[in-house]
């Protein structure tokens, strides 16, 4: 065989093989590569969206945490105010009870003083009658002289 002829056959086979590859093999390979490229691009876009969503969610979490902290501080302040109010109410109730007890004790003391004065007047009247009896050397009838004894008690 001739070398030129072999080269022409090889060139024709090469071009036929190149045409066949470009016509039937190359399009599915390019399609698969394009599909893969599209999947990779979609994955990267989804990753970017995921990161953006994660940042947004983290901002929301920080906002919720700040809100929760503020709410907790408010609740603690309200609890402290309520505690102070309860303490003040207890103090006021204790003061009112103490005033009531003191007033009752003063009233009881006044009653006892009055009762003691009455007893003392009775004793003084009895002593006066005995003294007058001894002075007069005779018995003075207390029932007969009740008006006189009552007048003496009021004067004492």
UniProtKB/TrEMBL annotation:
Keyword presence, Transmembrane helix: yes
UniProt subcellular location: Cell membrane; Endomembrane system
Domain of life: Bacteria
Transmembrane segments: 6-29
Assigned keywords, A-Z: ATP synthesis, Cell membrane, CF(0), Coiled coil, Hydrogen ion transport, Ion transport, Membrane, Transmembrane, Transmembrane helix, Transport
Coiled-coil residue spans: 103-130
Predominant place of localization: membrane
Signal peptide: none
Membrane-topology descriptor: Single-pass membrane protein
Pfam families: ATP-synt_B
InterPro entries according to UniProt: ATP_synth_B-like_membr_sf, ATP_synth_b/b'su_bac/chlpt, ATP_synth_F0_bsu_bac, ATP_synthase_B_chain
Similarity comment text for this entry: Belongs to the ATPase B chain family.
Job of this protein: F(1)F(0) ATP synthase produces ATP from ADP in the presence of a proton or sodium gradient. F-type ATPases consist of two structural domains, F(1) containing the extramembraneous catalytic core and F(0) containing the membrane proton channel, linked together by a central stalk and a peripheral stalk. During catalysis, ATP synthesis in the catalytic domain of F(1) is coupled via a rotary mechanism of the central stalk subunits to proton translocation.
Subunit structure: F-type ATPases have 2 components, F(1) - the catalytic core - and F(0) - the membrane proton channel. F(1) has five subunits: alpha(3), beta(3), gamma(1), delta(1), epsilon(1). F(0) has four main subunits: a(1), b(2) and c(10-14). The alpha and beta chains form an alternating ring which encloses part of the gamma chain. F(1) is attached to F(0) by a central stalk formed by the gamma and epsilon chains, while a peripheral stalk is formed by the delta and b chains. F-type ATPases have 2 components, F(1) - the catalytic core - and F(0) - the membrane proton channel. F(1) has five subunits: alpha(3), beta(3), gamma(1), delta(1), epsilon(1). F(0) has three main subunits: a(1), b(2) and c(10-14). The alpha and beta chains form an alternating ring which encloses part of the gamma chain. F(1) is attached to F(0) by a central stalk formed by the gamma and epsilon chains, while a peripheral stalk is formed by the delta and b chains.
PANTHER family: ATP SYNTHASE SUBUNIT B (PTHR33445:SF1), ATP SYNTHASE SUBUNIT B', CHLOROPLASTIC (PTHR33445)
Name of this chain's protein: ATP synthase subunit b
Organism whose genome encodes this protein: Undibacterium cyanobacteriorum
